[in-house]
Structures are given as structure tokens and as C-alpha cells.
């Protein structure tokens, strides 16, 4: 566990922040590559950059909301980790979609082209969570259990490294998404599968996480995950029954 990279005066650069930055850069590169392959407008990347900024704000605000009352507001806002993936996903994707809609572009092909970037960016962010000791799981006696004595919060008891579990899944998911796109699978199916698989994986991983259960024994993240998975299932169903889908893989705007 290596939470800090270096410090300049009172400004601290953390491994989590560095991994989030790397994830954003790699994600933009992947998105640009997928746009070129799909022959979609390259300035769509501008919407993705807007989504990254909005996503960071949304991720922090949802984290603060989820943990309000546990620490002073300033501490929550300046925590070295303290980002909620669902807050980032909804705010980031929402801002990007608003940008795309304002340009009168087709939404599904563009977002489907972004799915490998979303998976890889999320993967790198989860590695950052592991490095700072955030978002870990419940105690375990398994040989790969990890203690986070400088974690958030600290623990000397070995716990499930759920950050790495999710990162491993996202690596496989990113590979599958690229394979599906290269096989000219319909954009609606690609996006729908991403939503279903990412949602179900997060739902299951949450059972190993140390999070507050809000209703029916489930966490806020699990309800968000089920919402995402349900949206993906609806998209798959609507794509399957559509009779006017147009070009399948490299849909033009």
C-alpha cells in the first residue's frame, strides 16, 4: 500500500489521484481509437472530456452525501480518496450525453464506442483505491487477504482486496467489449452488455464490501448497480426487437 507519491508544500499528490489521472488519459486515448474505428465524429472526445470533469465532481459529491455525519464536511471534501463510482458514472455520462444531444448526434453508437474506455478507466481507478487502502472488503482468512494500516479507515486485519477483484473483472470486460466491437456486434448490444455485466459485478462485490446497508440488506451502491443492470437489459431487449437498427458496428452519425 503506497498512498502518497510526493508532497509540494501542503499539496499532497496521492497514488489514487495519479491513477485517476492516468485512467482519464488512457480512457480518452481508447475512446479516440474507438471513434476512429467506428467512423464517428472525432470531436466527440470533447464531450468525453466534459464528462470526466463532471464525473469527478459527481463522484465526490455522492461520496460526501453517503458519508455525511461521519466526519466534518471539509474532511470529506478533501479526503485523499473519497470518490463514488456511481456518482461519477451518472454525472459524467449525463454531462457527456447532454453535450452529444446538443450536437444532435446518435447517442447509442457513441456511448458504445466509449465502453472500453469506461471499463479501463474504472479499472485503473480501482487500482488507485487499492494503493490508498480505500473501498476494501470485509475481514478474511484467505491467503490473499490484505491489511491496510494506513487505509481509509485503517485496518490491521486482513480483508478482501475487493478493489483488485473488481479491477480483474474490468480487465476481462474491457477485452470482451473490444472483441464484440471488432466483431461488428450491434452498438445497442455492446452498450447493454456493458451495463448488465458491470452492474451485476458491482452488485455481487458489494456483498464483500464494508458499506452501510440502507434497505432490505442492500447498500446504495447495490441499488445503483441493479438500476444500471436493468437499463442494460432493457436496451438489449429493445435492440433485439428493433427492425430498423441501421448499420450494425460502424454506425454513422
Question: What integer is the average pLDDT?
Answer: 82
Proportion of residues in extended strands = 5-15%
Q: What structural class do helix, strand and pairing data support?
A: mainly alpha
Along the chain, the helix and strand elements come as EEHHHHHEEHHEEH
Instruction: Report the major sheet.
Output: 2 strands, antiparallel
List the total number of helices. 8
Helix content: 55-70%
Radius of gyration: 19 Å
Spatially, the strands of the biggest sheet line up as 1-2
Find the count of extended strands (DSSP E, 2+ residues): 6
User: How would you describe the shape?
Assistant: globular
Taking pLDDT < 50 over at least 5 consecutive residues as the criterion, the unreliable ranges are: 248-253
The separation of the N and C termini measures: 45 Å
Assembly state (oligomeric): single chain
Describe what this molecule looks like in 3D.
- With 253 residues, the chain is mainly alpha-helical.
- The protein has a domain at 4-172.
- The protein is 62% helix and 9% strand.
- It contains 8 helices and 6 strands, in the order ββαααααββααββα.
- A hairpin with a 2-residue loop joins strand 1 (4-8) and strand 2 (11-14).
- Helix 5 (107-132) packs parallel to helix 7 and helix 6 runs antiparallel to helix 7 (187-205).
- The longest helix has 26 residues, at 107-132.
Amino acid at each position: 500500500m503506497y498512498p502518497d507519491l510526493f508532497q509540494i508544500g501542503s499539496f499532497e499528490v496521492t497514488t489514487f489521484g495519479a491513477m485517476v489521472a492516468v485512467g482519464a488519459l488512457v480512457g480518452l486515448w481508447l475512446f479516440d481509437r474507438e471513434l476512429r474505428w467506428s467512423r464517428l465524429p472525432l470531436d466527440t472526445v470533447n464531450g468525453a472530456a466534459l464528462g470526466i470533469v463532471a464525473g469527478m465532481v459527481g463522484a465526490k459529491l455522492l461520496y460526501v452525501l453517503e458519508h455525511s455525519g461521519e466526519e466534518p464536511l471539509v474532511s470529506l471534501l478533501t479526503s485523499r480518496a473519497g470518490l463514488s463510482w456511481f456518482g461519477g458514472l451518472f454525472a459524467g455520462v449525463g454531462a457527456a450525453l447532454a453535450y452529444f444531444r446538443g450536437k444532435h448526434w446518435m447517442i447509442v453508437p457513441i456511448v458504445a464506442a466509449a465502453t472500453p474506455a469506461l471499463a479501463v478507466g474504472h479499472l485503473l481507478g480501482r487500482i488507485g483505491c487499492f494503493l490508498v487502502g480505500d473501498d476494501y472488503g470485509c475481514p478474511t482468512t484467505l491467503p490473499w487477504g490484505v491489511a491496510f494500516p494506513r487505509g481509509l479507515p485503517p485496518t490491521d486485519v486482513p480483508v478482501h482486496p475487493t478493489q483488485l477483484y473488481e479491477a480483474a473483472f474490468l480487465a476481462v470486460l474491457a477485452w470482451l467489449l473490444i472483441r464484440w466491437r471488432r466483431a461488428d456486434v450491434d452498438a445497442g448490444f455492446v452498450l447493454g452488455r456493458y451495463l448488465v455485466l458491470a452492474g451485476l459485478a458491482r452488485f455481487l462485490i458489494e456483498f464483500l464490501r464494508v458499506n452501510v446497508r440502507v434497505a432490505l440488506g442492500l447498500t446504495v451502491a447495490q441499488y445503483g448497480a441493479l438500476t444500471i443492470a436493468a437499463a442494460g437489459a432493457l436496451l438489449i431487449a429493445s435492440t433485439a426487437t428493433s427492425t430498423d437498427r441501421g448499420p450494425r458496428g460502424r454506425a454513422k452519425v
